[in-house]
Amino acid sequence: MKEKLYRKEIWITVIFSILLLLMGHSASIFVLFPSLQTGTLWGFPTQYIVPILLGWFGLAAVCLVMALVCNRFDDDMEEYARSQEKKKATVKEN
User: Fold this and answer.
1) CA 19 – CA 6 distance, rounded (Å)
2) pLDDT tens for residues 16-59?
3) How far apart are CA 31 and CA 22, in angstroms?
4) Hey, which of 6, 44, 47, 59 has its CA 20 to 30 A from 89?
5) Which parts of 2-93 fold into alpha helices (H)?
6) Which pLDDT score, from 0 to 100, does residue 68 have?
7) Cβ(81)–Cβ(89) under 8 Å?
8) Could you tell me which residues come within 8 angstroms of residue 29 by beta carbon, excluding any fewer than 6 positions away?
9) Higher-scoring residue by pLDDT: 18, 84
10) HEC assignment per residue over 67-81
């Protein structure tokens, strides 16, 4: 159980680090693919408005999901810690 929780923690960290980097550096897409710079969105050039939207709302959405996932993970860790304390208490009583 302990190893499973550590593995889960590592995966959460890696996945959200990648998502946060992608949202925060979305302007690089337009450098890598210059043909995407030709369009407009709501009257603004796509190379300006898409990174702003992903930087504000995309990061906010990723952070919200990350907070929910991390809270659930903390609950799992607390449950594991309580189960370990119960095991130690039963061992000491015997």
Assistant:
1) 20
2) 999 999 888 888 888 888 888 888 888 888 888 888 888 889 89
3) 14
4) 6
5) 2-24, 28-32, 46-53, 59-93
6) 96
7) no
8) 36, 50
9) 18
10) HHHHHHHHHHHHHHH
Q: 């302007």: which residue's tokens? A: 27
Residue 11, token pair as written in the block = 């995966």
Tell me if 24 sits within 8 A of 60, measured CB to CB: no
**Contact residues for 27 (Cβ-Cβ < 8 A; gap 6+):** 47, 51
Rounded to two decimals, what is the model's pTM? 0.74
Instruction: Say how many C-beta atoms besides its own lie within 10 A of residue 50's C-beta.
Output: 19
| Contact between 23 and 62 (Cβ < 8 Å) | yes
Q: How confident is the model at residue 93 (pLDDT cuts 50, 70, 90)?
A: low
